[in-house]
Known about the structure:
The protein is α+β, with helices and mostly antiparallel strands. The chain has helices at about 1-15, 40-55, 60-80, 110-115, 120-135, 135-160, 160-195, 205-220, 235, 240-255, 265-270, 340-345, 400-415, 420-425, 440-445, 455-460; strands spanning about 85-90, 100, 105-110, 275, 285, 290, 295-300, 305-310, 315-320, 325-330, 350-360, 365-370, 375-385, 390-395, 415, 430-435, 475-480.
Amino acid sequence: MLAAAVAASLALAGCASIEPQGDQSFKMEAPPLPPRPPAAENKASAEHNRMVALFDGEYKDPAAELYLNDILSKLAKAEDQPGDPYKVTILDSPIVNAFALPPRDLFITRGLLALANDGSEVAAVMAHEIAHLTEKHAVRREEEEKRAAVISQAASVIQNKQKGEEIQAIERRTIATFSRQQELDADQIGIKVTAKAGFDPYGASRFLAALGRSAAMRTSLIGQNASADRPDILATHPSTPERVAQAIAVARQIGAPGIGVADRAPYLAAIDGMIFGDSPTEGSVRGRKFLHARLGFAFLAPDGFSLESATKALLGVSANGNEALRLDSVKAPPGMSLEAYMASDWIDGLLQSSIESIDVNGAPTVIASARAGEWNFRLAVIRFEPTEIYRLIFATRALTDESEKRFRSALESFHRATPEEIRAVHPQRIKIVTANPGESPGDLATKMAVPDRQLDFFLLINGLEANAALHVGENYKIVVEEQ
């Protein structure tokens, strides 16, 4: 239900961004590629820059980079055909992701580094991504998709439409199986390489289990909403019991638990102090409040909503999943009035008679209603600058006086952030602490700078199961707000 609520609001809104997106407001575009130079090396550089732009830029952390590049050097020596090591780029994104690009680029987000708990887990992730590249998985999948398209098209022409649709369904299942097998193959190759490099081969199964827990928590909070232009690793590399079981089986073929180096303490030291979650300059979620320091506005969601700052918008879902919201930004065509923009074709199901002009904290605003299927929508477009429009979409299953109050309260909370509000938002960072005698996970969780579910977040980022006990003298991650 949570996912459905978010999906409904996303589908009707089109794709836009908290950043103004230009005249074509309902089109989502990736950052443009630099001019394409003729040299292969320059082409690789252009693709590198494009990936960095898609994931909020590069995150500079010399200690973490040094640690990760050392792992890549060890992995390069352990490959069947040793070569030059890949070079890491840490991406300034809270999304959990990693990928490799030719010739020898490895990208990893700080979101993934926050989820991992030791060097062997990160080594397994990086070896897995390199395996996708060395085994030419992307090329083979593309060939499989082309083959499936030819078969499906031929079936539709030669046989009847129903038969063609049946064959299309079969081909889709074949491609899904093909992709799943590639994931399993990359897991197996990665585990063997990490073990050969001296790391604990069970790190892969631990990280896969952490991915599963992360997916469950994310769904419970806001629903899955990875965006199409930069999907997270949960969308492209699903963690399943099958993958975890195979990872354990492959590790057992290498040796019993306890072999290899986990490298926990050095890894935690390398990420100590790293930014956690959203960057304040790109918009910060603090409970129900969202503040974008660089763009200079703040917004408060209704009671009971969970917020997430996604790639192209701010998303929110109520606790029962019956209401959802989306806030994004577009560039209005020069000279277009808010009334004209509201009446344009940026959203389906608009009730033209509901369009009304109001004022929100000094900003000209137009509100309206729309309906699609079982969802009712309350809409607002706010002129923040002469050509800059913010759009608030509030979706509800039942349009009542109470839901109208929640929409109005959210709308009326939108305002220019004051200097005091901006100064009050500080980055959240990972802090490594040591467990003292008598301390429990609940004790350390109280130190977490998150508005709710502190214990759940503490267990998640430390790879701990419910009811786990702390080990005295062991290091653990907490999240603190920089003062």
